[in-house]
Transposase (Caballeronia concitans), 98 residues
Amino acid sequence: MAKRNTRFDASFKREVARMVRDQRLSVSEVCRSMNLVEAAVRRWVAQYDGKPARDPGENESFTEEQQRIRQLEAENRQLREDNVLLKRASAILARELE
């Protein structure tokens, strides 16, 4: 099965979420009829449910917790890279001292 990488605008996502919530259609039915992936539709519905004042897909930003996690992951990556570099440098210095 080929991977689809289609982007949908906010109004489309909102309409799909409304079909599930307002028209009481199942996610499976909507996905079959519109040839969509269930995981994406479920995410759009969750966004629609959780943030009705904001349109799903519009100006999507991360929560403070998600931002902090990303920041910590980036810091962790950098520290691991620094650690590898220091290990290599210390191995080179140890060889030179012998």
Residues 64-97 form the longest helix (34 residues). Residues 7-60 form one domain. The helical segments are 10-21, 27-34, 38-50, 64-97. Residues 52-56 have pLDDT under 50 and may be disordered.
